[in-house]
Amino acid sequence: MLRLVTWNVNSLKARLDRVTEWLEQFSPDIVCLQETKLADKAFPDLTFREMGYDCAHHGQGQWNGVAILSKVGLDDVRAGWDDDGEDDPEARLLWATCGGVRVASAYVPNGRSLDDDHYTYKLRWLERLRATLDDHEDAGSQLAICGDYNIAPDDRDVWSPKAFEGATHTSEPERAALARLEEWGLEDVFRRHHDVGGLFSWWDYRGGDFHQGRGMRIDLVMATRSLAERSAMVVIDRNARKGKQPSDHAPVVVDFTD
DNA sequence: ATGGTTGTTGCACAA
After folding, report:
1. In chain A, which residues from 54 to 73 place their CB closer than 7 Å to nucleic acid strand B?
2. Partner of A99 for a Cys bridge, out of A9, A39, A65, A72, CB 3.0 to 4.6 A?
3. Of residues A53, A107, A119, A149, which has the active-site annotation?
């Protein structure tokens, strides 16, 4: 069994104790982290090494930052874009091959609001990801792009679709951008195992949203069909959102059969 | 319509 997790930790510095405790409990083989908010030199390599993980980190400090930890090998690491496109100053994408699976840890831009430049950046970022797949990857391979997509795939993934009318995360262009990845050959592995709505991975810190059940499912494991077929179980550990100093995201866990 | 909270850094901004 190969256990993979993706988790937006909202500052690895602030979250390190909670993250290591969680990893001890669940013993995942592959870990994709987003929003480490660390420079590369500040990444706690040793802490994870002592736990048996090889590490790759792509950070910029202060904002963004993505990492991959692996107990099953970490090869062919690539940070950022592999194309001739414009420089992207934001550290949001990291690739590595772990246990025979090409894995990406992705932190898709938030978008902020529909009329914000950052929303345009979000849509372009997703199209650039699709182009990367077209140019460098094989839809028949074992591949997963894991992370915080900042998109709720459909209305089951939002506590109130009405509350997001005119906002980001549920807009038609964002969902279309996600569909472009599906069109290439990726599948939202969670939906292979769960039909019901109301199962969320993110809750705003504000207004007691977690307690009130006001969340969204925006953290996804998007896998090729041949990999998705190996998935035996997908769970979102909402317990990790409870207690003292949680991230605003819960980890998503996938078990793949060998 | 606004507010609410947390993490960065520094007295604002991003989420």
Report:
1. 61-64
2. A72
3. A107
